[in-house]
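Hi P.,

Sorry for the delay on this. The queue was packed all week, but I finally got your sequence through. Input first:
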Amino acid sequence: MITVLFVTQIVLAVILTILVLLQKSSSIGLGAYSGSNESVFGAKGPAGFLVKATFTVGLVFILNTIALGYMYNKSYNRSVVDEVPVKKSDVPTPPAVPAAPAPSTAPAAPAAPAAPAAK
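Then the structure:
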């Protein structure tokens, strides 16, 4: 799918470049080589058609760029490290945790002396 979008992007870029160059400017540009287009496109000539075509192709170009960026980021959002095979011998074993100390068997503290009885 990415390949189709990429080829479409290149074709749209070429078409958009040609449409921009065909438009009339202060110098005639490439429009001089297209012959007499007034009869094909109407009394105004190709100006209105070329503007609409340029706008449409430009819009499709932008939408294709967004789709291509989204698809490329979605499918290639992986790291090279994710594809490295891991062997059991390569994984280090964690160091042994020392066992908790056993409860001491020391004698209990002597009891506090009892208070004298009240008379």
